Amino acid sequence: MQGCRSRRCSKVVSYYGLITPPYKLDALEPYMSKRTVELHWGKHHQNYVDGLNKQLATSMFYGYTLEELIKEGYNNGNPLPEYNNAAQVWNHHFFWESMQPESGGSPEGGVLQQIEKDFGSFTNFREEFICSALSLLGSGWVWLVLKREERKLSVVCTRNAISPLALGDIPIMNLDLWEHAYYLDYKDDRRMYVTNFIDHLVSWHTVTLRMMRGEAFVNLGEPNIPVA
Amino acid sequence: MALRTLISGKTLAAAALGGARTLAAARGVATVALPDLPYDYGALEPAISGEIMRLHHQKHHAAYVANYNKALEQLDAAVTKGDATTVVQLQSAIKFNGGGHINHSIFWKNLKPISEGGGESPHQKLGWAIDEDFGSFEALLKKMNAEGAALQGSGWVWLALDKEAKKLSVETTANQDPLVTKGVNLVPLLGIDVWEHAYYLQYKNVRPDYLSNIWKVINWKYAGEVYENAVA
Predict the structure, then answer these.
(1) Which of A44, A159, A183 shows the shortest C-beta gap to B197?
(2) What letter would DSSP give residue B37?
(3) A153 has which bridge partners?
(4) B173 near B182, Cβ under 8 Å?
(5) What pTM was estimated for this model as a whole?
(6) Are B200 and A43 within 8 A, CB to CB?
(7) Best of B200, B201, B203 to disrupt the A interface by mutation (most A CBs within 10 Å)?
């Protein structure tokens, strides 16, 4: 229509923004210092957002949702240039929301039942989570995921920026195992960092919400939204 | 008092592991030991802090040594028993921890306090080879800084010599993969650790600052010696 091509109409563009964690930056102390969260969120996470937006200015992925970008950008193990920034933006956002001040401990109700079903007991799950996290060589993440086909919870580790989304699983919670996530607070003591996360920081409330949503996808399948 | 701790600390870890070595040697497995640093932990300041050097040597490198020795003994047992599954399963621990020991042993020799010649540009054969293969010394530094900064996750950036082709190149390896995994003829002249533990306490997320500063304490004399031995 002619009106849109007139000089009065400017092109509207839309890029990703850095979402704020759902708590004050010092709220996770003493298990994760304010200094760490300031740097981790304000510098590392921010840099991934800025890097992604810069790429999107000239990328075919402009306009994609982050989840779509991750699944397509992963390109079956041969990631495209935009993949790394997109995945790390998503992973870090998911991470901040996987935590809650004065949380941890053990879950209740449906989540506890599912964990007991899939791991034997909460203690077993906790052991496996810590063990997996310590066995990851190099940088990466440890996740609790819901496996679609098997219809069960599982602990998985991914290297660098690899996301379970790209591998077809439904993420339920994650923990950043890159050294920048814990070095200022724990130096090389990854074990203490992981233990404190599972005992004091993981938000079972968020896990419950994500599981409810995940189970809907597993039980009812992906929604089939016809293209207009 | 703190200064004395810095000086005596570096040999403590090595002494503790020396004991373990003799025990395993009696069973026939040649285990490795944590090498001493040829300088004090604080000697590379302000380019690299004493705190980082101490942790890097006494914790990270020492852990690679301990875990490599453990994996070697497990491998020995598995090989003797003919347990192929375990032999294969141990490969990643051996590559990771063995590589960590190899890489860090080279790294400590790649560094030198400024007062002992650290940072002085390469001369003669290596200097000329750099000019020939990269255009200029500055161009080499620029390339290594760029590749080091761009490396995703953990790894190393290397100045490598292909001893067959007699050519220099800049390579990167992931995690603790040694340079030889990039090419059987590659000899490491210089390696820079870009794992976050190598710089985070001092430089935080600004890896490029770490890279531009580390050149002040790089031991080009050692790199030159390795080069001349390899091309001779």
Answers:
(1) A183
(2) P
(3) A146
(4) yes
(5) 0.89
(6) no
(7) B200
Number of residue pairs across A and B with CB atoms under 8 Å? Answer: 50
DSSP single-letter state for residue B59: I
Q: Are strands A140-147 and A152-159 parallel, antiparallel or unpaired?
A: antiparallel
How deeply is A14 buried, as exposed, middle or buried, from its count of CB atoms within 10 A (0-12, 13-18, 19+)? exposed
* Residue to test with chain A: of B204, B206, B209, most A Cβ within 10 A: B204
Distance separating alpha carbons of residues A174 and A201, to the nearest angstrom: 11
Looking at this protein, which amino acid is placed at residue A164? P
Reported ipTM: the value is: 0.89
Please spell the DSSP secondary structure of chain A, one letter per residue. Answer: -HHHHSTTPPPP-----PPPPSS-TTTTTTTS-HHHHHHIIIIIIHHHHHHHHHHHTT-TTTT--HHHHHHHHTGGGS--HHHHHHHHHHHHHHHHHTB-TT--S---HHHHHHHHHHHSSHHHHHHHHHHHHHH--SSEEEEEEEETTTTEEEEEEEETT--TTTTT-EEEEEEE-SGGGTHHHHTT-HHHHHHHIIIIIB-HHHHHHHHHHHHHHHHH-S------
Does residue B36 sit in helix, strand or coil? Answer: coil
Residue A21 near residue A41, CB atoms below 8 Å: yes
Structure tokens, A65: 């949702």
DSSP B38: S
**What letter would DSSP give residue B165?**
T
- The tens digit of pLDDT for each residue in B16-25 reads 444 444 455 4
In angstroms, the CA B142 to CA B139 distance is 5
Inter-chain contact A184–B92, Cβ cutoff 8 Å?
A: no
CA B82 to chain centre: 33
What pLDDT tens digit does each residue of chain A (228 aa) get?
444 455 556 777 778 999 999 999 999 999 999 999 999 999 999 999 999 999 999 999 988 999 999 999 999 999 999 999 999 999 999 999 999 999 988 998 999 999 999 999 999 999 999 999 999 999 999 999 999 989 999 999 999 999 999 999 999 999 999 999 999 999 999 999 999 999 999 999 999 999 999 988 888 877 777 776
